[in-house]
Amino acid sequence: MNAYKKEVWFTIIFTILFLFSGHLGLFFSIFPVEGNLLGFPIMYIVPILSGWFGVLFLVIVAGKIGNQIDDDIEKENQDNSKIRGEGVV
Amino acid sequence: MANQVWQLSNPIIGIIVVLITFVVFYVVAYLSNRASTSVQDLYATKGGVGPITNGLAMASTYMSLATFLGVTALILRLQVPFVMLWIQFILAIPLITIIYGTSLRRMGAFSPTHFIRLRYGKEASIIAALWMILVSIMYALGQMIGIAVTFETLLGIPYMTGLFVGGILIVGYVTIGGMSGATNNAAIQMVIMALMFIIPLGAIMKAMGGTGWFFPPLLYADMVPAMLDALPTFFDYKFPTKWYFALIPALTIGALGLPHLAMRVYTSSSLRSARSAMIWFALALGLVFSATYAMGFSGVFFEYTTGIPIAPADTDKLTIILNLAYNPEWVTALVIAGAISAGLSTLSGNLLAIGALISQDIVTTLKPDLSNKTKVRLGYLSIALGGLAAVLLAIQPPKFLIVSILWAFGLAGTTNASLIIMGVWWKKANRFGAMCASAIGGIVYVVVSPFVFPKIVVSGHALTDSMGLSGGMLAVPLSFLILIVVSYITNRMPSLMSQQAITETDSLVERIHGWSDINPKRYNSIVGPLIIASIGAIVFVWAMMPWAF
After folding, report:
1. Which of A12, A44, A50, A75 is the best residue to mutate to test the B interface, defined by the most B CB atoms within 10 Å of its own CB?
2. What is the residue range of B230's domain?
3. What was the pLDDT predicted at B2?
């Protein structure tokens, strides 16, 4: 997959993952569940945990992939300038 | 007890703590600002801030008095739905960074409005900037109300006196500090806020009989059975799915249009540093947000288990009230200092954004020949005027301080977010689409807000309408729809679109994504905008259908 496609898909997928992670309240309003976790109702504590640690995890992964995509774009730029016969900077 | 007056019995200790806080901030601002000579320095600190400082500053700018006072107030009134509403606010900086922050930073734009000027031209940027001034003032308004309430409790003075004392102190601080002072101070303020909020909360929970006082943000499950006995409906979702869905367009997308948040991405020293800052942001924000839910829980627990009602006029003081009820006065004084820190960091971000909007995005756009010195002076004057406007609006405040802040998110989403997102990702988005989307979307949002025409509202549920949730669900998708449709149509009118402008736009969009060449296959899809326009149309229609509460 070229760097452009990676960039577009990364942005779409991570936007959806972030939205899901921060909006579990919406999910539970559609699919309510019973029961407790860590002493709290699941529909209360899971959105809170997901909105903190879930987002933190995604941020770490997104940062790594974002840096990788920057490098890929830079590499593709250099390859393109070689093809065009320009000097590589 | 209904008319109990909540204030420090000995204001001297409170005044000393607040004075020390202000002296520290003024000194840091002065030292940081000595090197600030150009207008870019004033707003963006030469892009030289490290990831930890910047991540904490991002969290601090974001965590306003709304977090410190406003959230607990609305958890008291709405309970769990408001917790669910608040959780998604952590998404702001991560989404800004992955969707457009890195692109705008690569471009050298130091505000979203600056991007709109380069991408769509002068006229569109002035429309967006005018809306953004209203957004920043409404956002600042909530902070000003919080500051006034805090000074009222601190000094036992009337709300109005608190408003003017607090307002003048803060506007003076920001005018002296600039962004350098603001960034360094914001990081310090983040640490102060976390300590002043979480440690006293632990003491409150211990006094209430909780055993998890050593980590208050998550360890209060042992209080749940007593809460369910006192208020069995506390954990109920109460509102329909549509209400929870409306949070996405109104608040999550709304946050993508807020200039003072986006500016933090640009103060990073590099793109890698901006991405590392996100980690610190999420860690710090999650910690304080979770503590806020625990404080809200404790507030409801206090009201329902002790039988001491919190008067409607006092709901915004809940955090301070709990400290007055359970902690020594010197602790409450520290909490008040933390609250003032929270208001200060966000207000400085807001006022600097207003300064940048007026001096850079409007006056300099219209009169580019102004000298650098005049621009800096104009920036300072705009900051002071913005602060004054917020003080004047706070004379007759809305019922909850957080209402004007949340309303501002929806307006930012409607008038700016669509322009930025589509502008970064779709080469075919043009200035006609941008101007129509910002102008029409913004007008629709203002018209359906209960503040302007109380009878023209979307949901009919007073709090939902005044927080801009229903208005955002209507106007934000409308704005995307208008931008896409108008751009699509006007791109097919050769008399409106010059080839030179199209080439310049194509080159700009490629460059901000890091490309050194132009490839017509990139950022040119019609499928993506078609999907967004279709979703926008569906959400718009859904928002217009009756809301069942």
Report:
1. A44
2. 11-395+402-544
3. 47
